[in-house]
User: What shape does this take?
Amino acid sequence: MTSDSTGIGTEEQGSAVERVFDASPELVWRACTEPEHFKRWYGPAGMSLDVCEIDFRVGGSHLFGMRMPDGGSYFTAGVYREITPFERFVYTDAMADEHGAVAPAAEGGMETVVTVELEDLGDGKTRLTLRQVGWPDPEMGVHANAGWSQALDKLAETLAAA
Assistant: This one.
């Protein structure tokens, strides 16, 4: 399993990472879209995904609740905007409470848009490209790149065990 993420830059106050996995697009797709698989890898190193609700359809929503090493929780929620099976999906992601209520911008809330694309490279390999745009501060995109790279390390381990 390849375990190095490549930062492919930032755009629109966002982040972008790319990773090649030794797994079929179908397997990577399932790991990214089915709650029982997604919760095994999502989040930076040291964090776990204690809440993972995914209604994976256009217009469907998600609620993710990550547990931090200090015991605190961090929730995000969003809506799936576009789905092309085994190739691409797009969703919004915003800070939320444990019920999925999104924090208003006046209270520090923000909404980003995440695009995940899969490319079948043949021979059981898949390139995953992830872009997250809409951060109000460019530094947040840099931190997001680091967090996504750590999460994709965990995804590589999950796929290797599949």
